[in-house]
Amino acid sequence: MGGGKGGKKGGGGYPWWQHIKSKGGGGQSSGGSYSPPERGGETESNGRPMKQAKLIDIPTLTSPKTELQKYCWNNLEGAGYGAYKDLKGEWKEDDFTVFVDHVQGDAYAPPSHVRVRIPMSLAGHPAPFHTDATKNRAATDFMQRVLNDYLRGGYGVDFTQAAVGGGGWSSSKGGDIQVDRPSQFVLQRSCVVLTKEYIEARATLALPAHGRTAEGKKAAGALDALVKTAQKALIFANLDHAALKKHINGVLDQQFLREWCRSNGLVAFVGNGAILPRKSGNDDRPMQSSSVVPFVSPASVSMCVTLPHGGEIQGMAIRRGITLIVGGGFHGKSTLLQALQTGVYDAIPADGRELVVTDEMAFKVRSEDGRPVLSTDISPFIRDLPFDVDTTRFSTQDASGSTSQAANISEALEAGCKCLLVDEDTCATNFMIRDQRMQMLVATEKEPIQPFIDKVLPLWDSRSVSTILVVGASGDFFQVADTVLCMEDYRPKDVTTEAKAIVEKTKTNKGGVEPSKSGIFPVLRGRKLKLAGGDNGCVASGKASARSLRCIEYGDEEVELTYVEQLVELSQAKALCDILQYLGDYKTMKILRSKIDEEQSSTSSGNASKSDSKSEFRHLLDVLDVLLDRAPDGSCGLDNLSRFSGPQGFYSKPRKLEIACAINRLRTAKFS
After folding, report:
1. What is the pTM of this model?
2. pLDDT tens sequence across 209-245
3. SS3 for 553-586, per residue?
């Protein structure tokens, strides 16, 4: 499994130069499309080769043309850096508008926020791009990739690199332009926004300076480059229409396939020919090697489906229920599970995982030593603790492996999880199973931990929560499995019949354990995050920022996301950081309180069963999900999170499950 055609190197595995027309009208790719040269073997931090575009010294305009350029040229050249504050506001021209929403305080401060807006009368995008939410997401994703890679070399100049000034306070610095760099997945983002009225690109610009002196002419040049790049990347006539259509149709097919799975009782589907392994642990592009084995489904679990754009495909259908993935080490078990855990997102063309889809509410759970647990009901898994500790309201700042895994599952269920993805390698052994010899030595009534093997079937029978479990050491799970798949040389085999035969043959042996095959998985006690009045623990004690995909610095606290494995973009972590700040704001707390009351009222039903009822925390997650979604008028819901006076272009929408993870890992958050 692996491979896939990533085109030439660069662009996150995405051959962007095939999607940008040279000079001339819209339509097909032309032989004149720019193909950037590459630096000799040099790679960026994400593992992709760097292009041989020269680093900027910003090209100085021979003469300014727009009002904004003229102002920079005539009023800011040689002025004190503080004069840049006068740029803030709206600068309107005949065919575009530049918004300067935030101006940095000095050359070393975080960069300024700039938007370029083009009226739809000029941009010329088809109406479905703003009326259809899926097409909107796919089209803006495509244009964001073109915009990003254009800035990284499309004009032979890499505008994302800081100006070369030799270092030091008095040297020339700044001038670099940044836009959000997308992953291998098509997410809802705030970088490119397309509505009925306009299309807009958001970027940051480090306003150039020489010491404390503004370099107005260079600023004019950088703004000119940003506008021209936006016009090339955002105007429909300038794009490769065939490539754009392919990009959109790929997303539509994945959405169709996911809905088809739902209608046919499936929790996941892996298409034949899929390339599952990645280039490396820090490079999510497909592996490219002659030894890569494309995925092929066993005939017994294979299904055919006709996609609206991709035609008939065949692949492995994973039915709802309990599925085991077994096999020897290094044969592809975890690789398959990792593909399934990212199958909750739509992949870009040539990623290799375009035909791997998973239920959108599937969640990867594991042990997570040291994490906080905040008033969580873990009683289905842990009970009768010493000193009468109440496990329906369990709290700790330093959870053990088993306790953290219990909390991860309970929190996922509370957030609406429909499928648990579990890898034995990353689980607490004592949480997963207790063999018969241990049960004979330590009586069941003396063991607070109720092993997962006794809960996996009740979870499915009473809560309709499926489980896909990778196991390499414990055959006792055979007894509760609906399907058992064995990976051999990266190829799956259906060994369900053999596994069931082994169960029948060995169930009377002393080494066997008979797991619970009946029982009701109890309804979890609902939690409530304090939202009205007082302190809910979500107010940062200092600056808050997502320094990496896996960690949010939140005042004096760190929100550790290392083991929240389904986050795929730094901009998701940035959104999570500002969601926490949003929850800590008194005004927004009152708004959320009102919306939660409305949501609870609209979903309440006199005949709803107790097991179907939502906790108030779940209602909060639902309200946040709607708040962050694209609005009916096409405006960007993620803009609600901005901590500046204008919108930001560096958000990607996280799922409700990851929002819950961030809140649950904020050690100061207060639940009742």
Report:
1. 0.90
2. 998 999 999 999 999 999 999 999 999 999 999 999 9
3. EECCEEEECCCCCCCCCHHHHHHHHHHHHHHCCH
Q: CB under 8 Å to 383, separation ≥6 — which residues?
A: 391, 448, 450
- 27, β-bridge pairs: 240
Q: In what order do the strands lie in the sheet with 551-554?
A: 544-548, 551-554, 557-560
- Helix locations, 427-478, DSSP H: 429-432, 436-441, 456-463
CATH number of 246-525: 3.40.50
Q: Are 521 and 663 in contact (CB under 8 A)?
A: no
Rounded-to-integer distance, Cα 481 and Cα 237, Å: 54
- Domain range list for the chain: 53-239, 246-525, 544-664
CA distances from 43 to 10, 11, 39, 150, 532 (A): 9, 12, 8, 18, 49
User: If you compute the radius of gyration of the chain from its CA atoms, what whole number of angstroms results?
Assistant: 27
Q: b/e string for 162-196 if b means 16 or more Cβ within 10 A?
A: ebebeeeeeebbbbbbbbbbbbbbbbbbbbbbbbe
Amino acid residing at 244: L
Quickly count: other Cβ atoms within 10 Å of residue 130's Cβ.
Answer: 22
The predicted-structure confidence for 377-423, as pLDDT tens digits, reads as follows 999 999 999 888 999 999 999 999 999 999 999 999 999 999 999 99
